[in-house]
Specification:
single chain, mainly alpha, elongated
């Protein structure tokens, strides 16, 4: 998989799992500032360790595993372990999240296949801009030149293509309505 495809797939999975990760962190920590810091650190570590992710397994539990290790490290630095971090409590929390993760379309390959199907279903003029930007990693100016159009028209076409892509992914159950709106 090319770097651009990997980045795009990670962005989709990270966005899709971000709310779950925030809920998970809030179930373990009370301080919003610390939650935000640990969320960011979890995402950075996930990106850095992406090649270690088993693509045959759901992304959510893998991401939660990273977050739980980061939370434990945070509390070790503070020399405290809160009640919520006891194994029995973590086990219950994890079982609840696992039930959510059993929903269809949670594996890397499922999401990537849905993404490719949606890109392939775009009208040619939108597909060209989306592929150029996200698959080939070209800047908007270069895509506009390649397609013989203004930069502003290219930006608008990219925006419309992303909206169509989001709607398609929503219909496939890969994105929620809230994620399409954001």
């Amino acid at each position: 998989m090319t770097e651009q495809k990997t980045r795009l797939a990670f962005e989709i999975l990270a966005r899709e799992n971000s709310r779950m990760l925030m809920v998970y962190l809030r179930s373990l920590i009370r301080d919003e500032a610390i939650i935000d810091d640990l969320f960011q650190e979890s995402m950075i570590v996930a990106w850095q360790k992406l090649d270690e992710c088993d693509r045959e397994r759901p992304f959510g539990p893998w991401l939660r595993g990273i977050a739980s290790r980061i939370v434990m490290a945070h509390y070790r630095k503070q020399k405290t372990i809160p009640l919520a971090m006891q194994e029995s409590v973590l086990s219950v929390v994890d079982r609840h999240f696992e039930a959510i993760n059993m929903l269809a379309g949670d594996t890397w390959d499922d999401k990537l296949a849905a993404l490719h199907e949606c890109v392939d279903a775009l009208p040619a003029h939108q597909m060209d801009v989306i592929r150029g930007r996200y698959f080939d990693g070209l800047p908007i100016r270069m895509i506009a030149g390649r397609l013989n159009m203004s930069v502003e028209a290219c930006k608008k076409r990219l925006q419309r293509g992303r909206m169509m892509l989001a709607e398609c992914l929503k219909k496939k159950g890969v994105l929620s309505a809230a994620e399409v709106a954001s």
